[in-house]
Structures are given as structure tokens and as C-alpha cells.
Amino acid sequence: MKLALFDCDGTLVDSAGLIHETMRRTFDKFGKPEPRFEDTKAIIGLSLDIAIARMQGRPHVEQDDIEMTAHYKSLFSIVRQDLDYKEPLFPGIREMIDAISGRDDLLIGAVTGKSRRGLKLVMETHGFDKHFVVARTADDCPSKPHPAMVTECCDETGMNAADTIVIGDAVYDMQMAKAAGAKAIGVAWGYASVDELIANGADAIAYHPNEILRHFS
């Protein structure tokens, strides 16, 4: 029996455009310099308040970051509607999830820096809510790379970390997996480079979603 824990943004769905536009409007509202797209991609995976602090060169969250976080959250659904943006699945993701969802020897979960509401929206939009049996979000646990998202999913499902595989596109996913004692698979279609994923502990790299399947055999 294995537990597969998927990151969401950059792994299952391509949400960088939506996140960046919401971030751009938030920084503009607070009179901050507009972030570059590369700056936004670099923080995807972190919990939002920490991400905003990092984008301003701060090691810790300050009151200004908390206020910007609240504004970002109030804007997100508005921007999503403005852009008619549905956070599309990366090519091959649906087929991969369909292939593993019917297996009796595998449980599927999500570990994400999104809010629980944001994850629920993605799951419902793409019909994945029936396949994912466990999830931890930024509302539930400390930000990645803290191992709590993984360890709490393991506790809830009765699985050991040694039998758990974390699949993600960010260095924080790899670091989180290693801190929890789980296996880490980096995906090449997301927002971090393959070299960065390997340097931060990836046990393997998947260049297409169908390559993930071999790690569950």
C-alpha cells in the first residue's frame, strides 16, 4: 500500500498566470513595485503570507504582509472571474489520475500552499474530489517545507512516511518530503528547474505525467 501526495499549483494545474495577476493587483493596491512573473513563480508553493514576505525580501511575515495577504484572498476569485480562468490541468494529468484512482493498493492526497477553499474549487472544477481521500493546505499546517502536511496525511490514512510519495514541482515540495521521510518526485513541467529539484532532494524526475505511474508499481 502506498500514499501518493500531490502538490497542486504547478503540478496538477497551471495556475501561475492567475496567481501572478492577483499578486500584481495586490502589490499595486499597496503602492509596491510590480513583481516580475519570475518572482511570482519562485514563491508558488509557499503559504501566501510567507510568499508575499519573501517577494519583498523579508525573512519573516510582518503586519504589511498580513494585510496584503487578506487583500490577495479577497481578490483571487474576482481575478479568476475577470480572466475566465479555470486553472487548467497540465496535459496528461487527467489520464494519470484516472489510471491510479481505481487501484486498491494506492491512496491519493493533496499537499498544497493553496487555501482549503482554493483546493476545493480546483478539485470540483476538474472532478478530482472523489479521488483524493486526504488533503492538507495552508489553512491546516505550517508552510512548506515544514513536514506537517505530509506527516498529518500519513497519520490520517494510517500510512508510514516510508510508503509515501510526494509529487511536486517546487523545491519546497522536495524539502518537505525529505523532512518527513517520504520519497520525492519532481515534475519537469512546473515552475522550478530540474536542476533545482535534484539539488533539493528529488529522488526522481518525471518529464510527463505518465512517467509517474512507474513509481507506484
TrEMBL record:
Pfam families attached to this UniProt entry: HAD_2
EC number, UniProt record: 3.1.3.18
Keywords: Hydrolase
Example of a GO cellular component annotation carried by this entry: cytosol
Enzyme class: hydrolase
Single GO BP term: DNA repair
Entry GO MF terms: phosphoglycolate phosphatase activity
Domain of life assignment: Bacteria
Keyword Hydrolase set for record: yes
Protein's recorded name: HAD family hydrolase
